[in-house]
Each structure stands twice: as C-alpha cells, then as structure tokens.
Amino acid sequence: MFDTLSDRLTSVLQNLRGKGKLSDADIDATAREIRIALLEADVALPVVRQFIAQIKERAKGAEVSEALNPAQQVIKIVNEELVGILGGETRRLNLAKNPPTVIMLAGLQGAGKTTLAGKLALWLKKQGHAPLLVACDLQRPNAVQQLQVVGERAGVGTFAPEPGNGVGDPVDVARRAIEEAGRAQHDVVVVDTAGRLGVDEELMRQAADIRDAVSPDETLFVVDAMIGQDAVSTAEAFRDGVGFTGVVLTKLDGDARGGAALSVREVTGQPILFASNGEKLEDFDTFHPDRMASRILG
Ligand code: GDP
C-alpha cells in the first residue's frame, strides 16, 4: 500500500531540493504534480482539491525560515496536511462509564469484520479487559462458527444463537448477549453484524435495528482499503443508513493505491481508530495519523 504514491511524492519533493528560493511558479508546478499523484492513488476528488488548495496557500504564505530551506518547508507543509486529512490526533476507543462498553461492527461482507472482532478482542484482552464476542451475522453460512474460531484463538468467549433453532433473530441475540455480559462480568461486548456484497436496504435496516437494541458506545465502520474509490460511497451509505463513530481500515498490507485510506476520514468526518494489516490476529493496531503520513512520505 502507498508504494506508488510514496515514490511519486518523494520524487516530486526531491525536485525542490537545492532550490534557494521557491517562486509561485515552482509551488504551482509542485502542487500540480502532487495532485496527479493523489488522483492516481484513487484519493477522492474533493479531498484532493482541498489538500492542494491548502498546500498552495500555506507554501506561498510561508515565512522565509532560517532553520528550513524552501524544499524542507514544503515537505513539512505536505506532511502536516497529510496528518490533518488522516485525522490529526490519534483518537482512542470510547469506553462506557458504566460497563459493558458496546462496540458494534458494520461493513460490507468480506471487509474483514469477523477477523477484526478477533483482533479487537485480543487487543482488548491485552489491555486488561474481558471482552465477549457476539455473533449477529446470521446470514453468511459459517459466520457464527468463524467468529467462534477467532474467539477461541483470541482466548475470549463468544455468544451465539443455539444451533438448530433456525436462522434466529440477530436483534434478539444482541439483546441477550448484553444481559449475558452483565451476568458473566464482561466489560466490553463486540457485536459482529451481517454484511452483504453490496450496500442494500435490508442490511442497513438490520444493522440499525441492532444498533437501536444495544445502543453502542462505538459503531465502527469496517472498510477494506483495497476497494479504492468505492470506499467513499460505501462509507457514505453506512453513515446515512446506520451511522458510525469511527472507521477501521483493513487489508493495509495489500497493494492497493491507498486512496480509501486517505479519503474516508475527510469524506465521512469520522476518525480512523484502528488499522488491520494482515490475516493474523496480531496484525492490528491503533491508527496513528502521524505515522501513516510518515510512511507515505517515505
Ligand atoms: P467479513 O465478511 O467482513 O466478516 O470478513 P472476514 O473477517 O471474513 O474477512 C474476509 C477475508 O479477508 C478473510 O479471508 C480474512 O482472512 C481476510 N482479511 C481480513 N482482514 C485482513 C487484513 O487486514 N489483511 C489481509 N490480507 N486479509 C484480511
């Protein structure tokens, strides 16, 4: 991820090195190159426009600095603006004052929700929490079993409907799971929900019903960074249909161009909380905008 973008930006900024002073024409040419690099990386157009406008305005208005040469100054500005579109400060998970904290996962099928449930459970356990996973994806064959497997690997319990009772009602499962969490002293409940291959109304309604039943402290929109431009329209559909308080980017280990990662925060207004970068439960961490910006700038 980001390799091409990173190479492009590095070479654009490299061209500025050695210049004693930057003219407005130099800045315009640099901004144009950065714009092309971002568009090629599939960053959403409104985000690119905003980014370029900021870079130009700040670079042209920059005071002559004793400490930094002009090229370094532009690099600093680009870095700061990248951190800005990625969300600025790291946003921590919102934990309920009165446990259990309820975290609901929403997103398309294949986005990585079930895997994420296991990753989150392990991460929470390492922080001293006692999480309970809840299987509310009753649509996809084997989704319940898959959640039980990741739960076992993470060493946490899974609440699932009893087998043999038909498909079951995910809203009822979610409700009963919260009661169970209270009884068994789980302080965090992670609710896995069903995802379809594309956005559809029934999926949204079901997720909204589960949300209304469990009043989540966090609703995390899980998005596969490999889906590129589609990430933005999917995020908007989930924002309008279910609402979410944070984003989790998955598959950052893939070779996608990175546009989704750069667009989703700015377009939805919600922060990226976590990033997943592999299939193993350990391939997961809190999202740090500054580290991601440094990775992009090389
Ligand atoms: P769900 O349908 O949203 O529950 O998605 P799953 O959790 O079943 O994940 C779909 C596929 O993506 C599985 O094969 C996972 O192993 C894989 N996967 C999930 N997260 C990542 C990740 O961060 N990187 C990679 N490479 N694969 C992932």
UniProtKB/TrEMBL annotation:
One of its GO terms (molecular function) is GTP binding. Residues 271-284 form the SRP54-type proteins GTP-binding domain. Keywords: Cytoplasm, GTP-binding, Hydrolase, Nucleotide-binding, Ribonucleoprotein, RNA-binding, Signal recognition particle. Its main location: cytoplasm. Its EC number is 3.6.5.4. It is an enzyme of class 3 (hydrolase). GTP binds at residues 107-114, 192-196, 250-253. GO terms for cellular component: signal recognition particle. GO terms for biological process: SRP-dependent cotranslational protein targeting to membrane. It is found in: Cytoplasm. It catalyses: GTP + H2O = GDP + phosphate + H(+). Composed of three domains: the N-terminal N domain, which is responsible for interactions with the ribosome, the central G domain, which binds GTP, and the C-terminal M domain, which binds the RNA and the signal sequence of the RNC. Involved in targeting and insertion of nascent membrane proteins into the cytoplasmic membrane. Binds to the hydrophobic signal sequence of the ribosome-nascent chain (RNC) as it emerges from the ribosomes. The SRP-RNC complex is then targeted to the cytoplasmic membrane where it interacts with the SRP receptor FtsY. Part of the signal recognition particle protein translocation system, which is composed of SRP and FtsY. Belongs to the GTP-binding SRP family. SRP54 subfamily. This is Signal recognition particle protein. The lineage of its organism: Bacteria, Bacillati, Actinomycetota, Actinomycetes, Pseudonocardiales. The gene is ffh. The chain holds residues 1 to 298 of 518 of the full protein.
